[in-house]
Amino acid sequence: MAATNTAIIKADPTLAALRAKKRKLSDACLEKHVRILEQLAAANGGFIPPFKWMNEHGYFSSYSKLLDYPEAFAHLKREQDKKFEIYDAHNSGTPEILPPAKKDAILAPARYKSIAAYDISGARFSPTELRISEGIEEQEWMQIGRALAHVCQSTFWWIGDFILYGKNHYGVKVSYDLAQQSTAFSRTALYHCVRVASRFPPERRVDALTFYHHSVLCKFLPELADKLLSEAVEYGYTARQIREMADEAIGEKKKEKDGKHKLEIVLPDYLYDELKERATGELYWFVPQVVIADWLRLKREGKL
Q1: Pick from 243, 157, 171: which is nearest to 207 by CA?
Q2: Do 179 and 239 sit in the same domain of this protein?
Q3: pTM
Q4: Which DSSP string do the residues of 39-56 spell out, in sequence order?
Q5: Buried (b) or exposed (e) across 222-231, using 16+ Cβ within 10 A?
Q6: β-pairing, 77-78 with 47-48?
Q7: Of 82, 109, 129, which marks where a domain is finished?
Q8: What is the pLDDT of residues 109-156, one digit of tens each?
Q9: Among 22, 39, 117, 255, whose Cα sits 20 to 30 Å from the Cα of 289?
């Protein structure tokens, strides 16, 4: 598994001792970042928000100090320690449709929304166009991008849950047939959404990560998958990185390339027939020879 640069300081957790064991950083600076994360935790139900949220909202420096000086922040709980308390609270009885958070809220909106709540200031949508208001600030423009990415990623989970509900109430074949009609997703895409959604029930999904992060871990045991998802939140790993870490954990070697690449060429019937007539062997051997010979001729003539 890939090593991290996180330092674990086991003795004398005073700020002065921590500073002496790491790169030079004043006590006042470290205390400032401790206060920042204390405020964030207080506004987030007692938990520090995940890496992705802090990175997007300008708290990366404080998060970096958290990794460098873990003992200084040991009194604060991490988002991965939350154990889906919000999900459980919102799913007791009938799930509540919560209103969107206030615009000045320090944290992300509540877990559940109605579709109407996905209204983005400065943006107007049609099936074939995104129209953005003139004169918006750069930060407002970036917020539109974050909202688009959020909805795009969430859609895969929603489609998976949508079909799982249909399978339980209307039957498998009917659900897929109707889902394909209503969503215009291909059958393959629907199967993929359902596979990931069923493999990762809501209580195991990590909203700070992408659908693809979960998708690459579908074939692994829940214990390993959940551990790697937690590390991806903490250290900012990509989906490809955690997939490689999972393969390494179970002893699966990375496939080596054989130096060959496939290229599909579509030919009209008349050209295919002519090439086949001229070929002395199979077309899969003859066509590359033609391409190489023509390239060499143009090279010699100075046309390349």
Answers
A1: 157
A2: yes
A3: 0.50
A4: HHHHHTTTEEPPHHHHHH
A5: eeebbbbbbb
A6: parallel
A7: 82
A8: 445 556 655 667 788 877 788 888 888 888 888 888 888 888 888 899
A9: 255
